[in-house]
Structure formats: C-alpha cells, structure tokens
Amino acid sequence: MLSRLSGEFAQRAGALEAEIQTLAGEPLNPGSPKQLGDILFGKFGLPGGTKTKTGQWSTGARVLDDLAEQGHALPRKILDWRQVSKLKSTYTDALPSYVNAQTHRVHTSYALAATPTGRLSSSEPNLQNIPIRTEEGRKIRRAFIAADGHKLVSADYSQIELRLLAEIAGIEALKKAFREGLDIHAMTASEMFGVPVKGMPGEIRRRAKAINFGIIYGISAFGLANQLGIEREEAGAYIKKYFERFPGIRDYMEETKAFAKKNGYVLTLFGRKCHYPDIANPNPTLRAFNERAAINARLQGTAADIIRRAMVRMEPALAKAKLSAQMLLQVHDELVFEVPDSEVEKTLPVVEKVMSQAPLPALSLYVPLAVEARAAQNWDDAH
DNA sequence: TCGGCAAGCCAC
DNA sequence: AAACGTGGCTTGCCGA
Questions:
Q1: Per-residue pLDDT tens for A93-114?
Q2: How far apart (Å, rounded) are the C-alpha atoms in residues A38 and A72?
Q3: C-alpha–C-alpha distance, residues A141 and A130, integer Å
Q4: Residue A108 CA to nucleotide C9 C1', Å?
Q5: Which window residues (318-347, chain A) lie with Cβ within 7 Å of strand B?
Q6: How far apart are the first and last CA of chain A?
C-alpha cells in the first residue's frame, strides 16, 4: 500500500520537477529554498519578498501561496512538489523501514517526560503527525489498518483545551455553551460581531475559530495577523474586541502571567508544575515568549494530565468488562485501539466513559468532556 | 565523511 | 531578530 503510494508520489514529483525547470528557465533543485528565493525575488524580481533571520529569502508556504494568487505559475508547482516530496520522504518511504520483523508492525517510541507541558512525544517513527488535512495525506492514514477480524477504534476529546479554558477562566457564557452543545466558534463570532449564529457566513466563523485557537496559544496581534493573513492593526482590533466581550479571559491570562512571574512555574488543574524559569527575563522577546508558553501550558498540561489518567485506567477498565481491546496509540487528545469485530459495540462506551470521566474524583468539571469514538477498518475512516 | 543548523512542514 | 503553544523528520548547506 505505502510502497505503491511511494511510486505514485515519485512519479508526480518527477513530472513536477520537469515543469519547475522549464518555468525557472535554469537548473533548480526544488528542495533548495535558497536557490528558489534567488530565482523568485532576484532573477524574476517578484514583489513582497521578506528575508529570514539568516538573510535568505523566505519561501514558506504562505509566501508561495501569495505569489501563486498573483498569477505566477512557478510557486504553485513548488508547493505541489513540496507536498508530494514531504509525503513520500517522511511517510511512504520511511514507515515501511520501521516494520518490525517479529511483529510485522510499526512500533513507535513514546517519551513520557520530554515536553515542558507534560504531553508525550513520539519518535522513530513519530506516529503523532500522520497526515490528515489533505486528501493526498489521508491516503497514508488509510494504510494504518486493523488485523483481520478486528477494527481500529479512534476516540478523541472534542475541543478539550477550549473547554478547559472555559472551565479554568470561569467564563459563564462559554461554559454554558459547552454544556448545551453549541457551536463554540459560531457563538464566539456571534458575541464578538453581533451576527446571529443562524446563517452566519463561513468567513466570520473562521476568524472567530482562529481567535479561539490564538487565545489558547497566548495570543498576539502578530501571530493572529499571520494566521489570518490580515494586518496587525486589524488583528489587534479583534483581540481588543474579544477581551471586551470576555474580560474574564484577559483576567485569566494576566493572573497566569503574574503567578508565573512570582513562582517561575504554572500549575495544571491537578496541581502539576510546568516550569518557566525565563518568565522574568529582561529580554522582552524572551519574556513574552515564556508568558505565552505559560498561558498555554495550563491548558495543554491539564489536557495532558486528563488523557494520562484515562490511559492509566483504560487497561483495568477493559479487563473488568472482559474486553480484549488493545490500546495502540496516543495522539495528544486521541486514543487508538484495536478491537475484535464482535467486541466493538461493547468497547466504545467503556472507552468513552473512561476518557470523559478521567478527571474524577480529583476534579469535577462543570464543563463536560465530550468524547467522539468511531470504529473502522482503517485509521482514516475511524477518525 | 560526519555533525549540526536552518528552513520547511507534518500533527495536535 | 522574532513576533500564537507543543513536538519530530527531512533536505540542503556549511564547516570541521
């Protein structure tokens, strides 16, 4: 399956490379950002070029996307080439080399204490970054299949960090929205822009969604502008508006920063410390970076605590229910299991319950933790 | 030839 | 310079 895809990607990369040579008008290694930048902004003199910190022309996806929209042919071809090359080298070529001779399966390594927030990390190979966003990428995900007579079950927490934000910051409107199962991004947009949720334009909701994610990451006008492709001033106005409508979140962020500065760490809801020794550094850039990381750490770290509790309880819970599901993977807010066909029906509610009840009895959250679980032959269809 | 950095990009 | 959080992998490139 994957080797067939490798061949497909190789062929397409080759064809694209030929077109790229023609458009560039000279030999160009499409994998060399340096060469590409010199051609686009030097030789062709295209507008809008920016430099990286080392003085090279930036040729990231956003830059090339902008140039493509202005009608230039080469940037689009480069982006297409990069996509198939990435999928081939990182996934379809690499994954088969990790198949274990005894088990005939790929086994990842999890680092349990490797991130500042308490998340796991996965390596050799990293199975926490298997593609899902594009159709081409999903072909790779479809290669992850259950054994004969089995299904893969994927169970993930829905918007867990946003729920934890509502809970920790104590935002009544958001907490209520989650309890009532409302569309939280549409609701945010409605609150901010005074647009009814019903019949809301997609673009309005998209912007509110970006703001919600930005808040989780310790928002800055620069980052939001970058994400949305708008001016910094406009992004700043959005943030101002957001905080006017949800002053509790601004207070939460300020309190988190003050606590971190005083103590050098922040706490997850379960009381685990995440350390930020540079939080009071006189370098304003470094300090701001640590402030955003500290704000994010309470949410990301609490989510990491919750899924860890679920994982610890999962095996005994399955055993008690006389179920033989095997827990295979953790992907931050998702657990993947291999389950005999005949046990799928009984396994789903056990998995959902262990995950959604994981904070208990240490914590009783007001906001429910919704879990979506599905079974299918391959990982993509289970998602 | 090897190691490390930079750029870029995949995921949550 | 970098500029919205957490990771890992690959390629190109440069210097030892």
A1: 999 999 999 999 999 999 999 9
A2: 15
A3: 6
A4: 14
A5: 331-334
A6: 19
Element (H, E) at A340: strand A334-340
- pTM (2 decimals)? 0.96
The Cα angle at residue A149 between residues A145 and A154, in degrees rounded to 5? 45
Full DSSP string of A177-207:
HHHTT--HHHHHHHHHH---STT--HHHHHH
Measured CA to CA, the distance from residue A3 to residue A72 in angstroms comes to: 33
Bridge partners of A156? A334, A372
**A194 CA vs B4 C1’ separation (Å):** 52
Query: Amino acid letter at A53?
Result: K
Tokens for A113?
């204490």
Q: From CA A158, how far away is CA A356, in angstroms rounded?
A: 10
- Is A58 (CB) below 7 Å from strand C? no
Nucleic strand B within 7 A of Cβ A79: yes
Residue with minimal CA–C1' distance to C12 is: A32
Contacts of A262 (CB under 8 A, 6+ apart): none
Nearest residue (CA) to C1' of C11: A31
Nearest protein residue by Cα to C1' of nucleotide B8: A60
**Which tokens belong to A136?**
């081409």
What would the pLDDT profile of A304-333 be if each residue is shown by its tens digit? 999 999 999 999 999 999 999 999 999 999
Query: Tell me: the pLDDT tens digits for A134-175?
Result: 999 999 999 999 999 999 999 999 999 999 999 999 999 999
Contact A218, A287 (CB under 8 A): no
Report the C-alpha dihedral over residues A199, A201, A207, A209, rounded to 10 degrees: 40
DSSP class of residue A145 equals B
The DSSP letter of residue A147 is P
- Tokens matching residue A78: 């480069």
> Pick from A287, A275, A217, A288: which is nearest to A249 by CA?
A217
